[in-house]
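re: the backbone from monday

yeah here it is again, tokenized this time
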């Protein structure tokens, strides 16, 4: 499953957050979030849902 990291990055820039702040808002460790964003780790559906909830979008819109 390929995650649309560009969409997440745009959201973070729009909010003027750093990655650690987004991770905090999602309720996950910043290391996990950074691994997901860098492509070193494939995200679990639960983490995709957490990210989507913070962004107030559907999880399916984050998957390419």
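seq for it, each position gets an aa:
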């Amino acid at each position: 499953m390929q995650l649309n990291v560009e969409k997440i990055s745009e959201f973070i820039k729009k909010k003027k957050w750093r990655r650690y702040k987004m991770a905090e808002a999602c309720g996950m460790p910043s290391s996990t979030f950074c691994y997901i964003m860098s492509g070193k780790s494939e995200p679990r559906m639960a983490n995709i849902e957490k990210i989507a909830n913070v962004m107030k979008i559907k999880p399916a819109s984050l998957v390419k």
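The chain has a mean pLDDT of 95. The domain at 5-56 is CATH 1.10.260.40 (434 Repressor (Amino-terminal Domain)).
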